[in-house]
Amino acid sequence: MADVLSQGEIDSLLSALSTGEMDADELKKEESERKIKTYDFKRALRFSKDQVRSLTRIHENFARLLTTTFSAQLRTFVQMNVASVDQIPYEEFIRSIPKMTLLNVFEAHPLEGRLLIEVNPNIGYAMLDRLLGGKGTGMNKVENLTEIETKLITQLFHRMLETFQTAWESMIEIDPVMADLEVNPQFLQMVSPNETVVVISLSTTIGEASGMINVCLPHVVLEEILPKLTMHHWMQTKKKERKEGEVEALKQTLKSTQVALKVILGHSQITVEELLHLQRGDVIELDQNIDQPLVIYAGGEPKFYGQPGQRKQRMAVQVTEVLEEMGGWTDE
Question: Which UniProt keywords apply (predicted)?
């Protein structure tokens, strides 16, 4: 937003212009020069704002799911939220993280290439401390990981990837598989140094420790699904899936709905005196001819024609015709 000048500043500016201390043409030239932006080709912005928003939304969901997962597993206070989403060269990302840290290198079929989740050692050891019965105190001794600590951290990373898969389900079905556990980022060369990566930083608090978890997604890995990372595509897909889901749910509900079914064998008229003297074995003559089909009612509405019979020692009716809504009937 532009700064608002006070009345005194406006008077001083007008006075400087009138006395020649300031040149209006020079001010215009400076204003035009401000519109020129420097573009760094080493820091190419290859993700559109819409795509960045989609990635932010996905990883906000990832942070919520991971908070629930680790809260239940570690039985302590866990809080995660997206702190920033930036697209930077891979080399700049490597320089920004600690020299010794926890690096979860994984693949996510059908995407080609490797992705990375970097967990600050302070956070990693806080999770280990909780798993081993501690209060969740963080420390940093990554270079001296024991075999047991490596195994426990690997299990935590596997659980993290399961949550990562769930968070991405709304966009694409992926199958993340952990490829390696590294501690020195200098020895990790996933892509070329100038390759653009999007880094989603999750501000994390676990027990008494706090730090960052960084998700590094190279552009070359996400390139084939970039068209799906637009709000328009996402909304259209969601609308289609929701419509198909609603139709299928409606069908299943209708299939399980119970409908009263009855068959009218015919009608007859008798006097009250005849009714009072009815006994077992008496025969009542109906107005229905034996060669005429019976009307079958579903939910009180005539729907079918049928013929009476017997099945497994029980009285039954066989549907022979389907009534049309306009009153006629056709063969089924």
Answer: Bacterial flagellum, Cell membrane, Cell projection, Chemotaxis, Cilium, Flagellar rotation, Flagellum, Membrane
On whether the CB atoms of residues 140 and 121 are closer than 8 A, the answer is yes
Nearest to 99 by CA among 181, 192, 183, 182: 183
User: What CA–CA distance (Å, rounded) separates 78 from 134?
Assistant: 15
Band (215; pLDDT cuts 50, 70, 90): very high
Contact 190, 103 (CB under 8 A): no
From the number of C-beta atoms within 10 Å of its C-beta (0-12, 13-18, 19+), residue 110 rates as exposed
Asked whether 163 and 61 are in contact (CB, 8 A), the reply is no
Residue limits of CATH 3.40.1550.10 in the chain: 42-232
Nearest to residue 114, comparing CAs of 196, 190, 219, 192?
Answer: 190
Q: Would you state the pLDDT for residue 4?
A: 61
Residue 7 predicted with pLDDT over 60? yes
Dist. CA 207–CA 130, nearest whole Å: 8
Q: Where in the chain is the domain with CATH 2.30.330.10?
A: 261-331
Per the CB < 8 A criterion, the answer to whether 52 and 198 are in contact is yes
Q: 298 forms bridges with which residues in the sheet?
A: 261, 301
Q: Quick one: pLDDT band at residue 322, thresholds 50, 70, 90?
A: confident
Q: Which distant-in-sequence residues (6+ apart) come within 8 Å of 238 by Cβ?
A: 170
Asked whether the beta carbons of 209 and 37 are under 8 A apart, the reply is no
What DSSP state is assigned to residue 269?
-
In whole angstroms, how large is the CA radius of gyration of the chain?
A: 37
Give 42-232's CATH code, choosing from 3.40.710.10, 3.90.180.10, 2.115.10.20, 3.40.1550.10: 3.40.1550.10
CA 91/CA 114 separation, integer angstroms = 16
Cβ atoms of residues 129 and 208 within 8 Å? no
